[in-house]
Amino acid sequence: MAQVGLLEDNARIAKLCATMLQYAGHHVIVYEHPRECLDALMPERAGRSAVAYHPVASRALALLPVDVLILDLHLPDMTGIDVLRFLRANPRTQSLPLIFCTAASSSEVASALSIAPQASFIEKPFTFQELISAISSALSIREN
């Protein structure tokens, strides 16, 4: 199945979401803080060189640790919209499939979708089927 990144600061929601995704056969990496997620997806932000001198290392650097990212728009220290802007501004992550999983207002969701129009959206609280359907949809966009 897929490597799913989950940027969610609420530990109970993160655990529930991860459990659902693992039940569906996905591998889940939970990021509790925006900076942790951005550093994992964009190693050059974490102070590591984006330029690798070894061909194997440069191929490894080009690979993202996740196939899709579930992004909450309400986060500590940095908004989900700010995270989204960083992701879309970086060549490594600009085409990463995204799912907004949030209880944000419709204007916040509209703002996020204006930055990433191909992203999916599921509203909290969500069902197992809504979550799995959003993952399938996001992955099918990536394959096209």
From TrEMBL:
Gene Ontology terms describing biological process: phosphorelay signal transduction system
Positions of modified residues (4-aspartylphosphate): D72
PROSITE patterns given in the database record: RESPONSE_REGULATORY
Annotated Response regulatory domain residues: 3-139
Entry-linked InterPro entries: Bact_response_regulator, CheY-like_superfamily, Sig_transdc_resp-reg_receiver
Keywords assigned by UniProt, alphabetized: Phosphoprotein
Pfam families cross-referenced by the UniProt entry: Response_reg
Cell membrane listed as a keyword: no
Name of protein: Response regulatory domain-containing protein
Origin species: Dictyobacter aurantiacus
